[in-house]
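Reply to dn_fold:

You asked what the input looked like. This is it:
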Amino acid sequence: MAKAGSAFESITLNGRNFTCDSESEPEVDLTTYSNETAANTDGTFRIKKTRKVQSISGVEIAIDPGLGDLSFINDLQNKLEPFSFMATRVDGGVYSGEVTLVDDVKYKEKDGTMELSIEGRIEML
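and this is what came back:
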C-alpha cells in the first residue's frame, strides 16, 4: 500500500498551539550530517562530514492578532535560547524538539496566516 504525504494539522511553539493552513507544504529535513567528497592524489577519495541542525520550512499557521499571536511570534523571534516545538501531522505523525525561528516572519493580512521556518534539534516520534 502506498503512503501519502501529510500536511501539518497543528504546531505548538513554546507551549502555544497554532492551527496550520491546509494548503501549506512543509519541507522537513531531519538529516544530521551533510556529506562532501574530496579527491586524493592517488585517485581515491575521502568523505568530509559536517554536522548540521534539522529544519522544517514552509509551515503556514493561522494567526489571530486579537489574541496576541503577532507579539507572541515576535517574542519567539527575539529569544536568545531555543524553545520547545511540536508539530502534529494530519495522519497522526508527530515531530518534536528544541528550535528557533529562522528567516523573516511575515504576517499575510489578507490570508490571516504566517509562514514559519524553524531550525534546531527535531526528531520524529
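The chain has a mean pLDDT of 92.
Hope that clears it up.
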